[in-house]
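Recap quiz, item 2
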Amino acid sequence: MTAPVLEAHGLVKRYGSVTAINGADFELRPAEVLAVIGDNGAGKSSLIKALAGAVVPDAGQILMDGQPVVFHNTRDARAQGIETVYQDLAVIPALDIATNVFLGRELKRKGILGSVFRRLDMPEMRTQAAGHLADLKIGIKSVTQAVETLSGGQRQGVAVVRSAAFGRRVIIMDEPTAALGVRESGMVVDLIRQIRDRGIPVVLISHDMPHVFEVADRIHVHRLGKRAAVVRPTERSMSDVVALMTGAAEPTDVERSGGS
Amino acid sequence: MSGPADPTMPKAPARQRFDLAGILRQPLLGPLAALIIAIIVFSLITDTFLRPQNLSLILQQSVVIGILAVGQTMIILTGGIDLSIGAIAVLGTIVMAKTADASGPVTALLVALIICALIGSVNGGLVTALKLPPFIVTLGTFTIIYSATQLLAGSATYPVDKGPLTFLGNTIKIGGFTTTYGVVAMILVYVFAWYALSQTAGGRHVYAVGGSPEASRLAGIKSGRVLMSVYLLAGIIAAIGAWAALGRIPNADPNAYQNANLETITAVVIGGTSLFGGRGGVLGTLVGTLIVGVLRNGLTQAGVDNLYQNIATGVLVILAVTLDQLARRRSQ
């Protein structure tokens, strides 16, 4: 078995008397889509934030490729190649697509224009952004158009492209289809598959069981602040998984220990 | 649309029909058209409007508000507003005049620049560190600065000597067209601001913070730093405006430019920059400043009363904000 790209052991996070993460384990393998599901308040968002560097756990260990890492903030996680797509369409509507893709990581001109005059290299950013859009088969004509001229699915596409462009190791998607219609959700599910097919593992947090079963290779079921089971969608039905999620059913020993 | 939607279909085919909302969204086109129409109308109804001396006068009359409006534009782009920018400039003129008597004009310029920059930083600090609404912060600092200026001036005005302090009032001939260094300075301030806002990462972050603070944060932009630099720059620009004001009238008057804050906001809004932040730019503000200048000058030439000019400006402001609202609604 290949080593996990990203794993966590015994993560704990307390807010006063509330324990959001209660000794959670996590394991993401190369080139897979791992869905993370759990009831509201199960602590899956805290777990994901810890992996993305947005929350610093009180105890436990995070490893990348078997090496321990510590994330003090999201910048640390990004530096390791972990990118996160947030559910609320984190793009700037009035700015063009290329600017949005490179927001916060702009490319500057070579030479004195860049170093002294700090001039942006817009042509290069447009070329690269168009390349990334084409890679993921997002049919947008021009990267100079404002994001607000796009549909909700295309906007989410831009957010996904941004993470795919810079997420060298892991891409985390937090409810990427929650704000979208049926057809547009389908586009995002396609994007997730394409990213996985390029060899980059995806962590998908979602409430949408049909999507989870459509795209996930494995499903991490989170319950009461920790991992309750990891199951394969080929071996379990949707109602089985919901039962595991709510505690109505018990996982097998293999599933409880992190799956096969 | 009939038939089942295909989830893998990337996008609807682009429509090639006439798109009014798209044209309204072109930020510079509307104001530019208004400016050209105003120029044509006034050249038809008056004999004097198109004379080079008159056009030069319009530019000179626009210099102070035009410069201050650059700082106002940057702040409005972040979603803020600056009610104190005129008061900072007036304080700047008094500081320049009083310091020049004791320490000479060059020191006076530097001292005023530092004081204006400091006040800009105070505005920025209150907005970023205490997270207070910019409207309230600058309403407070406006009142404080205005009164402090009156105390400093002791209800007197201070004439300044010809020299470095009035340099921006000196005339310069460019290809037979006589103008002042103040006009040149205004254009330089616009060029600088245009470059910074559209060609540098920092400038794009100004738009990003104004467009969506949350998305900017998630993209790793330090919005506090962006806001601080914008308010600091507005203070520095106020100092340049103060210098230009002494060039225009070499007499520092604590009661001058009392409506400069509102006039700059007027120029910014007419120029198509959104009061909600994140869209617009300084080129629009330059056009907006010129629209107000042309309107006032043209109506004066046509013998229209000053009060009617104010009414016309007010109507323009409401029209500009209406267009902005419509464009926003269409984009959501």
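Chain A touches chain B at residues 74-75, 78, 84, 86, 88-95, 99, 103-106, 108, 117-120, 122, 137-141, 146, 148-149, 151, 154, 182-183, 185-187, 189-190 (CB under 8 Å).
The longest strand of chain A covers residues 18-28.
End of item.
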